[in-house]
Amino acid sequence: LILLLTSQLAWGQKPKPKEDYEGCDGIQDADRRTYCKAIDKGDAGLCKKIGNNDRRQLCLAKLENSAKQCERISDNKTKQRCLQSIR
User: Fold this and answer.
1) Considering the domain boundaries, does residue 4 fall inside one?
2) Is residue 12 a part of any domain in this protein?
3) Range of the domain at 79
4) Mean pLDDT, 10 residues at a time, the chain of 87 residues
5) Distance CA 46, CA 34 (A)
């Protein structure tokens, strides 16, 4: 065991670190990145900066825990997912 550890140190091998979680900043799409930040911070003001209307309404619905906001979503699949997450 000591020989094994010594040989690894001699070769300069270090255990590979886990990849760092980039958080919301690692998201390429601006609307998705803003949505992520709004949910993380709990800031409804950030939701209002989202250009995609359905995503904006989903963001507001989750932060305000409001089925009324879910009903404003035009895409039925997203609307149903929103309503299920509120209940």
Assistant:
1) no
2) no
3) 28-87
4) 55 52 85 94 94 96 94 96 90
5) 7
